[in-house]
Amino acid sequence: MIRYSRVVGTGGYLPEEVRTNEQISETVDTSDSWIYERTGIKSRRIAGAHESAASMAEIAARQAIEAAGCDPQTIDLIIVATGTPDLVYPSTGCLLQQRLGIKNAVAFDVQAACSGSIFALSIADQYIKSGAAKTVLVVGSEICSRIVDWTDRGTCILFGDGAGALLLSVTNEPGVLSTHIHSDGDFKDLLYCPLPQTSVNKNEQEAGYISMRGNEVFKVAVNTLGRIVDETLEANNMDRSEIDWLVPHQANIRIIAATAKKLKMSMKQVVVTLETQGNTSSASVLLAFNEAVRDGRIKRGQVVLLEAFGAGFTWGSALIKY
Ligand code: COA
Asked: Is the pTM value of this prediction over 0.85?
């Protein structure tokens, strides 16, 4: 039998606190209109002091497991994508495993910045296709608000907190059609976040916050995402007209619109959560996918292209028959 992986459940969690552009404009030199016009963001969610990547992951994961109607003890692999783990170790995956009380699974984290969810999905798919796992929980969970310098208007306007999850299960019909992941370590200086305790250069300015040359990141992101669309279509011998939905990483509406244009897709076929969530890094694609599944936009049998781009640089896509 040829094995494929198939999405059997999705979940998501957003913290309660809403932080608007107006509120940010009170503390840094910016405005609602500047932020909205340049990024498409109006507000983002901010995790409470009691919350963490693991606590948010747990809520999203429980929703996905419930939607799938599956016994959590059948999960044999847990992969959490995060750049904001609760601890350096144990991994957030292990913390999530403990919270869910899942005994016979192996759990680990994937760190690919904003592309983390696609990387995790790709690994999960390989495990299932090879027969090494049958049911895999994939989660992206991020507390970006804690690694953002709230005095830097170039970055603090962009990010938000949240968690998204999906459960993949083995099946004999596709499923996940293909995944494609890439990295290029030459671009570290354009987007990075140091961990001061382990950094080689303990620069006092680098207090553990995101540092980004936004305009340069923007240009590489647009070109790279255009290329990954071509690669994904070619690998599946598919025409862009066969894609029903684009579920992109939510970094900037202008980047998303450029990818949609490349696919000749109307923005009505693009799932956009950016306006009220900002960029939730490795959670964003899974949150958007969950939202569109739950509100009935994405239907069984439809073809969905997921894509993301992030620090590293890392980038990737997944083509799914839902
Ligand atoms: N409010 C008002 N002005 C701002 C501002 C803000 N929040 N941030 C920057 N500016 C100013 C700059 O200082 C600059 O001023 P100057 O012309 O006087 O020098 C001007 O706006 C243009 O800055 P620039 O950085 O060229 O703007 P931009 O159009 O590229 O938009 C981003 C900035 C960050 C919104 C955009 O570059 C972006 O989204 N980049 C990609 C980010 C991304 O995807 N990151 C994550 C990857 S996963």
From this structure: yes
* Residues annotated as catalytic (active site), given as ranges: 114, 249, 279
Q: What percent of the chain has pLDDT over 90?
A: 95
Question: Of 32, 250, 252, which is best to mutate to test ligand 1, by the most ligand atoms within 8 angstroms of its C-beta?
Answer: 252
Q: Going by CA atoms, what residue is nearest to atom 9 of ligand 1? A: 154
Residues of the chain above pLDDT 70, percent: 98
Instruction: Report yes or no: 168 and 8 within 8 Å, Cβ to Cβ.
Output: yes
What pLDDT digit, counting tens, does each position of 8-30 carry? 999 999 999 999 999 999 999 99
Residue 270 per-residue DSSP state: B
Banded pLDDT at 198 (limits 50, 70, 90): confident
The domain segmentation of the chain, as residue ranges, is 4-173, 177-321
- Tell me, using a 6 A CB cutoff, whether residue 187 lines ligand 1: no
Equal fold, 4-173 vs 177-321: yes
Q: pLDDT band at residue 205, thresholds of 50, 70 and 90?
A: low
Pick from 25, 34, 38, 224 the residue to mutate for probing ligand 1's pocket: most ligand atoms within 8 Å of its CB: 38
Q: CATH top-level class for 177-321?
A: alpha beta
CATH code, 4-173: 3.40.47.10
Flag whether pLDDT at 201 surpasses 80: no
Distance between CA 183 and CA 311 in Å, rounded?
9
Distance from residue 143's CA to the centre of ligand 1 (Å) = 22
Instruction: Check pocket membership of 217 for ligand 1, CB cut-off 6 A.
Output: yes
Residues in the chain: 322
Atom 12 in ligand 1: which residue has the minimum CA distance?
Answer: 154
Tokens of 198: 């382990």
Distance from C-alpha of 193 to C-alpha of 29, rounded to nearest angstrom? 23
The 10s digit of each residue's pLDDT in 50-64 is 999 999 999 999 999
Helix then strand then coil, in percent of the chain rounded to 5, is 40, 25, 35
